[in-house]
Amino acid sequence: MFDTLKIDEKSGVPVWVQIRNHMYFLIKSGQLKPGDVLPTVRNLAVQLGVNYNTVHKVYQDLEADGLINSGRGKRSTIADIDHGSIEAPGSPVDMVIDELLRVARECNVSREDLEMRLRERLSEWTA
């Protein structure tokens, strides 16, 4: 089922976002059904040729969204959810911004400092 997922390193979309979006699609489309067992993090990382931590982050994110059930020492499974109620994931840019905000909070970066850093980077950016 994950054979159709091809990571595009040149797309500019982070690998974890590509994997997460693909899994959202598989769940929303019903290709993955409640109770289906997902590959282990390690096996999926090897299959996709990505870092273990990348897949681990995807699984954590999907669990936080209530789409999968997992636990230490347990296989991850698709949660018992109404597929029609699943919203499509946000754009890759929105997901990266959300991740930036999460990391900034974890690192105790103040709002003012974050805004200053973003303004600096944006002033250097040429589209």
How many whole angstroms does the radius of gyration measure?
A: 16 Å
The helix-strand sequence is HHHEEHH
* Apparent shape: globular
| Beta strands, count | 2
Sheet-strand content, in percent, reads 5-15%
Helix content: 40-55%
How many helices? The count is: 5
Given as residue ranges, the uncertain stretches (5+ residues, pLDDT < 50) are none
Order of neighbouring strands in the sheet with most strands: 1-2
User: Which class of secondary structure composition applies to the elements?
Assistant: mainly alpha
Describe this entry's structure for a reader.
The chain has helices at residues 15-28, 41-48, 52-64, 92-106, 111-124, and strands spanning 68-71, 74-78. It is mainly α and 127 residues long. A two-stranded antiparallel sheet has the order 1-2. The longest helix has 15 residues, at 92-106. The radius of gyration is 16 Å and the shape is globular.
Quick synopsis:
The protein is mainly α. The protein has helices at about 15-30, 40-50, 50-65, 90-105, 110-125, and strands at about 70, 75-80.
Key terms:
2 strands, 127 residues, mainly alpha
